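[job 0417] fold request received: Alpha/beta hydrolase
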Amino acid sequence: MAINRRQFSALGAGVAAAATLTGASTAQAAPRSRQRPAIRNVVLVHGAYADGSSWRKVISLLQAAEVNVTAVQNPLSSLADDVAATNFALARQDGPTILVAHSYGGTVISEVGLAPNVAGLVYIAARAPEAGEDFAALSAQFPTPPVTRGIITSGGYKFIGRTAFLQDFANGLPRKEALTLFAAQGPLSTAAPTTSAAAWQQKPSWYAVSKSDRTINPDLQRFMAKRMGATTVEVNSGHLSLVSHPETITRLILEAAASV
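[job 0417] inference complete; emitting structure tokens
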């Protein structure tokens, strides 16, 4: 289910708190509801070619909204290892939890999202496979994203070369910020991940489509969001909307927390 711009903007109306982001020169308004969301725990799962620090701005805004936030550090060595890391984070939560993923992280939360304490799933320009689905085959039904030309394979892992990272993975970000993210990118195992579950079939889901994404085709994102029956918003962003549009992403997470 898509929500229109007016409905989505209204989610941020009411009470707002200013949160100064660490290392940033400006303050951003932290979206907050008049009452605390029913769900107080959020677990953030990063994708490939990134690490947990990619959520830094969203973490600050959620904490300003008095949400308990945990960012998983996926080893990216296998789907099983990433599932174990996320399950470990979920086990530390003290109640119902919203599970949020970016990019490849969507594969992870689709696998672990059936955990009893997961109340809802939020996908940020993320993969959302069916159980056992070959994501590469699904992706092949859509135009090849530009980032593909810059992926380098070495020693059983994949990473993105500098030019493609700046132009196609971190498009829309200031160069200095993109270079910092490039330095921290986490290589992904070349082993194809195969899920045994699709938690979005049983849990309420939200999806943020990145309209200028050069890593996961935006039409593929729309296809997955529609297939999921997810509440969907579209963001004028490249693949890293969590970095370029943290307020929009935070607002969607808070909406999920208030809706389940």
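[job 0417] notes: Residues 5-259 form a domain with the Rossmann fold fold (CATH 3.40.50.1820). Residues 3-30 have pLDDT under 50 and may be disordered.
[job 0417] exit 0
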